[in-house]
Specification:
- This protein is mainly alpha-helical.
- It is built from eight helices and no strands.
- It has helices at about 1-25, 30-60, 60-90, 95-120, 125-150, 155-175, 185-215, 215-235.
- α5 (about 125-150) runs antiparallel to α6.
């Protein structure tokens, strides 16, 4: 159990650290867009070479695709609720949508991590670095947008601290539930994370990066993809 707590905290910490970094300095919009584009590329690699591939290998296409559909619908519904709230307050839900995406990705992803730890599977340093590469830009971009939208710093820290704690707790929960779960469940969880991420990337993260970084977005995205894909193969 101690290992699950440790690795859960390590995997979730970048979510909170990114929010802190967003407060330590004012990020020019262009740099924020580049950071978001880089993170989007890393998440694309995570979907292709970790979540999808692992889910397919473990449980086959049916639980994987079912999880993808449920994850996509969950993110879509949550994002529309945030849009409606932002419209009532005449604000922008972009930062909040990224936070929801991180939560819907992080919980099933770290649940699977906890199950793997309970099964005796080793955690590679390459995997930990890949999580850092994808989570850190996501939280920096979201926290910066939330601050620009008028949210107070303590509230932003509380939001991202809560996301990080829930994701870390999912690792511990996965470790505890390992004996009552099977490969089909792990495949569905991987698919859920992939589905939520795909909708978040298309609807929120990539458009947000494009609006800020303009022509630099594509290059930043490819670099993020290349780094995360390399780390995935290294692990």
């Amino acid at each position: 159990m101690g290992g699950a707590i440790l690795w859960g905290a390590v995997a979730a910490a970048p979510l909170f650290v990114g929010a802190v970094l967003a407060m330590l300095r004012t990020w020019p919009p262009r740099w924020l867009g580049i950071v978001l584009g880089f993170g989007a590329g890393a998440l694309m690699a995570s979907i292709a070479f970790e979540l999808w591939e692992e889910g397919l290998d473990r449980g086959g296409p049916i639980p994987l695709v079912t999880g993808v559909a449920l994850g996509a619908l969950s993110y879509y519904t949550a994002a529309r609720i945030l849009d409606a709230r932002a419209a009532r307050k005449k604000g922008d839900a972009g930062g909040g949508q990224l936070a929801v995406g991180a939560l819907l990705d992080g919980i099933p992803e770290q649940l699977v991590l906890g199950i793997g730890l309970a099964s005796g599977e080793p955690v590679s340093i390459a995997l930990v670095v890949a999580i850092l590469v994808s989570n850190l830009p996501e939280s920096i971009g979201s926290a910066a947008d939330l601050l620009d939208g008028g949210m107070r710093r303590p509230r932003v820290l509380l939001l991202w601290g809560g996301v990080a704690v829930l994701c870390a707790a999912a690792t511990v929960a996965g470790f505890a539930l390992a004996s009552v779960t099977d490969e089909v469940f792990r495949a569905g969880a991987s698919g859920f994370a992939a589905g939520a991420l795909l909708v978040m990337l298309v609807d929120s993260m990539v458009p947000e990066a494009q609006s800020k970084a303009k022509e630099s977005t594509g290059l930043a995205t490819v670099l993020g993809f290349a780094l995360a894909a390399g780390l995935a193969f290294a692990s």
